Amino acid sequence: MADRIVPLGEKRLMDVKLGELGSWLGKRDFTPNGVLASIRNGHDRYYNKYINVKKGGIGGVAMLLVGYVALSYMWEYDHLKHDRWRKYH
């Protein structure tokens, strides 16, 4: 049985070909409500895949924690870079 043809607006990002990327981005909803809905959908997908499972481990929470640490390090990198000891010679 052949797969049904999915309209470009309903495809996920990983299913879009590189040549279709511009028109796919044009079909996205960039209004404040659309952005909030996409953030909510992303959170729900992450929560259902990694947190809300029958036999859960520490993987989903650890992934969230590592992401937070990496993001906070990137935000503070300029400040940390200037605090290093330097050789004045």
Automatic annotation (TrEMBL):
Residue stretches in coiled coil: none
Localization of this protein: Mitochondrion membrane
Example of a GO MF term: proton-transporting ATP synthase activity, rotational mechanism
One GO CC term on file: mitochondrial membrane
Keywords, alphabetical: ATP synthesis, CF(0), Hydrogen ion transport, Ion transport, Membrane, Mitochondrion, Transmembrane, Transmembrane helix, Transport
Pfam families per UniProt: WRW
Membrane-crossing residue ranges in chain numbering: 56-75
Main location: mitochondrion
InterPro entries: F1F0-ATPsyn_F_prd
Keyword Acetylation: no
GO biological process: proton motive force-driven mitochondrial ATP synthesis
Keyword tRNA-binding: no
Protein family: Belongs to the ATPase F chain family.
Protein known as: ATP synthase subunit f, mitochondrial
Naturally occurring in which organism (per UniProt): Oncorhynchus tshawytscha
Gene that this polypeptide is encoded by: atp5mf
